Amino acid sequence: MIERPLFVVGFPRSGTTLLRAMLGQHPEISMINEPELVWGLERWGMRACSLEKREDLLCLLRSNALTARHLEALSSEVTDSFLNNEGLLSSRDIYERLLPRPTEGSRWGEKSLNNLFFMDRLWEWYPGAVIIHLVRDPRAAIASGLRKRGYELEKPTRDCREAVARQAILWSYWMQVAEIQARFQPKEGGYLMQSFEALIEGPEAVLSEICACVQLDLDPRMLTHEGRSNDQVLQGASDWAHSNLGMPLLPERARSAERLPDWFTDIIAHFARENAEKHGYCWQHQKLGILLRAVFLASSPMRRRKLRKHLRRRRRGLALCRH
């Protein structure tokens, strides 16, 4: 059984890959990148699995691209052990058997964004687990995600504005779910919220606090960029999406949101201002004009359909928000 694991969660493009890579430079911390196994098990309602259903379960889990990539990278020894183990496996047993074996004496951990929706489950399995929630200025996180998908923010189209609005609503929703999920923290567990901006501008202070939370000393290698240049994500097909990972931390990265156009800030403020201010993100903005509000109103059925699709895939988090 894994003892007192470490989990990194957060909204997409919030710097979680950077934090996971920095933590992984510690000689006593072993971090895995985005297996998304918990989401897969919860999505398919898998509380236990008998021997004859193991192959079917793997097929279901492979429907998520990140989980499929994780399972493909597992050794045949790990896969065979899962498929041939006698008896009924609980969801925690399934989770642990589909992970690379932690090295003895190391603090094991993983980064999966969707674990944010299942922190209660993680603490149920591991009461002593430490969960690090990394938060970034929603303007910067959303802009990074949209540019990754090919949007040109300097020449906004109606579709681009719609995408900004959808992402602002989703960012606000993720923050609400995190607030609710954090209430399930047991006495022996840990929940630590850190900001991306603080990590960039003062990495030593942030990493020292995290290390203290997991009862380890800060290792100087965590602060250098040389080790991150060989990170696992830079060896795969998505290396272009993390081009800054192996570079030194530049303070201007923490202020990238200040260079975004005013219309972008105005839309995000309209849909996510309340939750942004809760996390210390305040900025000057204008109210949306009548014409722009009419555009959002006219296309609201499309936005609602896309949001419902997103929320259905994370139905447990939605259910918690209703209570």
Describe this structure in words.
The protein is α/β, with parallel strands linked by helices. The protein has one domain: Rossmann fold, CATH 3.40.50. Helix content is 48%, strand content 9%. The protein has helices at 16-24, 37-43, 54-61, 65-73, 76-84, 91-97, 119-125, 138-148, 158-181, 196-201, 203-213, 262-278, 290-298, 300-312, 315-322; strands spanning 6-9, 29-33, 48-49, 89-90, 107-111, 130-135, 190-195. The strands form two sheets. A five-stranded parallel sheet has the order 2-5-1-6-7. The longest helix is centred in the middle third of the chain and has 24 residues, at 158-181.
Quaternary state of this entry equals single chain
* CATH first level: Alpha Beta
Low-confidence stretches: none
Helix content: 40-55%
What gross morphology would you assign? globular
In short:
The protein has 15 helices and 7 strands. With 323 residues, the protein is α/β, with parallel strands linked by helices. It has one domain (6-35, 99-322): P-loop containing nucleotide triphosphate hydrolases (Rossmann fold, 3-Layer(aba) Sandwich).
